[in-house]
Specification:
The protein is α+β, with helices and mostly antiparallel strands. Helix content is 20%, strand content 8%. It has two domains: 40-132, no CATH class; 163-277, no CATH class. The longest helix is centred in the first third of the chain and has 25 residues, at 13-37. 18% of the residues are buried.
Length: 285
């Protein structure tokens, strides 16, 4: 139903301003929702002298399979900032690809993680550019929180070069988490590929393992040994509640008053098979 223009003309000036303001807010809200629904993440791209950003579409000419799969990758949502934003998913990690494209691939991208002829200046001398990031640390400029976690006392040996982020995360296809993530046991393939002993099967399984490795472990680093989320018995007490009865501390209906003073649940000689046991329902070896 269209508004009657005669009625609009008869409205007080204050009402007209209110309607105009409401309409303007509605337009802003629609635009905000539209922008929010676009799955894009703005990134600050590295600056490399003599090279320009050309967009991921140019990579398809030679890397067609990777480009086709990359459309499904989490990192495909990355774009450059500014009015001339472009789809810079590939270049957000590999750097500006103009020289690489113009040379037919002879000149490697600035961050290629592979051997290749370095870029040359106008006088034939090699350009002096910042040392490209190692494969193990290329993710850190965007994932600064993860960088901090790898500096904690107990961490996966990524900074030491014994592992790389791509061992657990897939940059070119599908979810960034290999196996789908670490939230549920069915998706813990990322961890099981190295920690095969924890796969089982067990006669008596630890039910917490069904919830995934991250219930007890932080995947990148922790202040606690074995990358545990919580130290000592407090880790177990997140699920196994205490009851106070007659001055005794009961856990699972058993008196733990003195046992809790002997150390953590898995070091006091009681529940040592924390991932599962083949001989005891109390998770003993």
């Amino acid at each position: 139903m269209k508004p009657n223009p005669y009625i609009l003309q008869k409205l007080p000036v204050g009402w007209k301003r209110g309607l105009a303001l409401t309409a303007g807010l509605a337009v802003v809200l629609v635009v905000a929702i539209s922008c929010r629904s676009v799955s894009r993440s703005v990134v600050l791209l590295p600056d490399v002298p003599g090279a320009k950003y050309i967009g991921s579409k140019e990579c398809e000419q030679c890397h067609d399979k990777i480009y086709r799969d990359f459309a499904t990758a989490d990192h495909a949502r990355l774009i450059a900032e500014g009015p001339n934003a472009l789809n810079a998913g590939c270049e957000s990690c590999h750097g500006p690809g103009s020289l690489h494209s113009e040379s037919g691939g002879e000149i490697k991208p600035p961050y290629s993680f592979a051997a290749g002829r370095p870029q040359a200046g106008s006088f034939g001398a090699h350009l002096i550019v910042d040392q490209p990031p190692y494969k193990e640390t290329v993710c850190f400029p965007c994932h600064s929180t993860v960088r901090g976690q790898f500096n904690l006392p107990s961490h996966h040996p990524v900074p030491e070069g014994q592992m790389s982020c791509s061992d657990c995360h897939s940059p070119h296809k599908g979810s960034a988490y290999r196996g789908g993530g670490t939230a549920l046991v069915s998706e813990n393939e990322s961890c099981i590929q190295c920690h095969a002993k924890q796969r089982g099967p067990y006669v008596f399984e630890h039910e917490a393992a069904r919830e995934g490795c991250t219930v007890c472990h932080t995947p990148h680093g922790s202040v606690n040994a074995k990358m545990l989320t919580v130290r000592d018995a407090n880790l177990c007490l997140k699920c196994h509640f205490q009851q106070i009865n007659g001055g005794k501390i009961l856990i699972g209906g058993s008196d733990h008053t003195l046992r809790l003073q002997e150390g953590s649940c898995w070091t006091a000689g009681c529940h040592e098979a924390v991932h599962g046991s083949r001989v005891s329902s109390s998770l003993r070896f």
